[in-house]
Every structure is written in C-alpha cells, then in structure tokens.
Amino acid sequence: MILNKDTSQLTLFLTTACNLHCSYCYEKNKTNDAMSFETAIRWIKNGLTQDCASFLNIYLFGGEPLLQFPLIQKICDWTWIQQWKRKYAFIVQTNGTLLDDIMKEWFTSHRNDIRMCLSLDGDRDTHNKNRDNSFDKIDLPYFLDNWPLQPIKMTISQSNIDSLAHNIIWIQEKGFRIRGCNFAIGEVEYDDIFFLRVSDQLRQLADYYISHPSMELAPIINLPLFLLSAKKRPERISCSMGSNKLIVVNTDGSTSPCSFFSNSSINKMQYGKLSHTLNCINYRNIECYKTCPFFPICDICYGENYNSTSDIYKVSLNKCRLMKIRLAASMYVQGSLIAQKKKVTYEDQLTIDTIKKYQKQLKIN
Amino acid sequence: MEKFELSKATMDVLNQLSGLKKKEQDIMIEEWCKCTGMD
Question: Residue A274 in contact with residue A289, Cβ under 8 Å?
C-alpha cells in the first residue's frame, strides 16, 4: 500500500462478519460484532478535524461491510452534512454479492461521494474456486457503469497460478483496472515449480502487453523502475504501516497498525507479543534495507514477513525471489514498450537507465 | 536465453533513446505519488 504525503487512510472495520468463505482469507477471527455508529463518527471526526492538508480516504471494511448497509448510510449521511476543511472520500471494499436494488439505487445516487472497490479474482471458474462460488452474484456492469476508473482488488491463490496471465487479461478486457495483484498471504506454497510457473505467466502477460501497447500494465509487472535511477531516489515507497497516515480501527474502536494485524486477523496473545514492536515501526530495521538496490520499490509487507518468518523485519527468501521475477518481468515489458515509442519521456529514460544498470543481476530462467 | 532478457535489437534501440538530451525537469517523487494515488 503506497500512501504519499498528500493522502492518508482511515480504515474502519464496520464488521468482521462475512457471507463468503474465501479460500485464502487471512481474517481467521471473524465474529458477528459490528462497529457502533458512535465509534465510527468519533474516528471520522478525529480524521477530518486534523489540521492536515492531505486527502483522507475513509475505507469501510470488513468482513463484508455491506452486511452493515444501514450503518454505512448513517455514517455517510452524518459525514456529508458536516462542514469539513479536509477533503475526503468514502470507499467500500466489497465482495459485491449483497448489492440489492435498494443498495444499488443509494450507491448510484451518491456515486461521486462513495466508491465501491470490488474484489474480483478473474473469470468465473477462478473466482468461484477462490471465492465461494460467488461470481454469478456479482453485477459486474453495475461497478463499471458507476465507477469506471475504480480499480478492482485481485488475489492470486495457489489454485490459479497457471491462469494468472489469463485472469489479468480477462479482467482488463472486461474494462476493469486492477489495483493490486497480490499473492494470498500464507496460502501459496513456494517451491521451484511455483517460481517457474509464475515466470511463465508473467512472460505471457508481458508479451500480451507488448502486442497491446495501449493496455495499462497490471501492477504485478509495473514496478516503478524509473525511481531507482531518479536523482531524488526515495528510501521506500511501500507500506505506510506505523506512520500517522494509516489508521485501522477495529469494530470495538481499538486500533491496529494495518488490517493484517487487526483483531480479526491476529489473536490477542499474538498481538500482545508484537505490540511493542508494532508501536514503533521503522522500515530501516528491515534487514535488506541497506544491502538491496531494489529496496526502494520492493513491496515488502510487514504482515507477510511476520507470517513467513515470525519477524516483521525479516523478508523471506521466497518473497525476495518472487520480487526479483517481478522486477525482471517489469524490465522486460517496460523496456520493450519504450523501444516501440517514437518519442520517449524523461521517465522512460530513467527506466532505460535502470534496465541497463540492473538487468544482468536478475537472471531468470 | 533468459526468460526476461531483452533482445540485442531492443537494447540497441534503448541505448539510442537513452542518449537523448534531458529537456524535462527531474520527476519529483511527490508528483509521481500524486499520479498513482493510493487506490
């Protein structure tokens, strides 16, 4: 999750209950608890009265937040009638299966003030396998018609690695943008065959984009290579966990540093052991911070680290290997696309510099 | 050939392109972040 200095995020777990049982869900501690209206508006007020110029994205999260549709309406109606200095927007992260005509009418009438981010893993077969046979319950045209620019959230699981390229292309050819193509944390089995399969898929995907240069690159092979050659090279762009730009509020009003460490994902005993560390996150403690030239653009996830190595600052070798495949694929596709252009931008030139400097270090067979 | 190795022909084109004069200002990281947004 990349949050820049102009954007902050407030995530409200309206409920941890869900009507689906997705194969890779990391929220193992679901309950039927719901956030109270008073808790929600307390945190919204806290966020919107801060003397801060940055835009605030208010994520309504779950479980499945549409299970609390009346609460969503109440929260939004209350927020919208107030006068706030700070600019904001509501975003609902949803599985899309509970939208009835009443909800659709309300969301459509407020579509400029509240967006829906749909979780969609691919075509019917893939989505059904991952997400509890729910494909046919989703009105895909509704999402496209109302929020055509809103990217969807895609998860890649063990069972659909070999259709990764197909599913990304399928989603994009339907007209959707993709926000993230993340491998399910704790669900994927990393072995040599896995990495071969992923490499094959990313090569297929890259070749598709090379022959369809007007398509937007999916994030999985659109790493910002140019940043590695920029004069003002950032130290790190991934994950704002531990900063004041990301606040996650559980149903009971307590806070967590990110959704992976929320009450629904990690039990209290585990959290208790980690709380001191989580209260003073410093990305410079990540062990490869000083040694890896790709660190600035690596999407290291503290939650993923913890799941793999029991240490939020220790990146697993598998994650590292996967990132290197993505880097190599990004260099291949971006370099090929730049070579097709008649006119290149300065950003393209920085990308070329990165490719020339680092490609040989990333030998992927 | 490695899976993601760019061909010599492509690299020749990229080498020619990278020699162009830099007319634009260096891209500020903040500007890039604004473009990407967080969604």
Answer: no
Would the CA dihedral through A364, B2, B7, B12 be positive or negative?
positive
Residue range A249-287, pLDDT digits in tens: 999 999 988 888 887 787 666 777 777 777 788 888 888
| Residue A1 three-state SS | coil
Q: Give the whole-angstrom CA distance, residue A249 versus residue A163.
A: 35
Burial A8-18 (b: 16+ CB within 10 A, else e): bbbbbbbbbbb
Cβ distance B14 to A356 less than 8 Å, yes or no, reads: yes
Residues in chain B within 8 Å Cβ distance of A3: 38
**H/E element, A94:** strand A88-94
Nearest by CB to residue B2, choosing from A3, A5, A365, is: A365
Q: Determine the distance from the C-alpha atom of residue A175 to the mean position of all C-alpha atoms in its chain, rounded to a whole number.
A: 19
- What is the average pLDDT value for chain B, to the nearest integer? 68
Please give, rounded to a whole number of angstroms, the shortest distance from the CA of B3 to a CA of chain A: 5
Complex prediction ipTM: 0.78
3-state secondary structure of A341: coil
| Mutual angle of helices A192-211 and A317-340, in 10-degree steps | 20
Q: If DSSP states are collapsed to H, E and C, what string results for A201-241? A: HHHHHHHHHHHCCCCCCCHHHCCCHHHHHCCCCCCCCCCCC
Tally Cβ neighbours within 10 Å of residue A268.
10
Residue A41's CB: how many other CB atoms inside 10 A?
A: 16
Residue A170 vs residues A101, A127, A139, A216, B26: alpha-carbon distances, Å? 27, 12, 16, 13, 36
Q: Measure the CA–CA gap between A304 and A157, rounded to whole angstroms.
A: 14
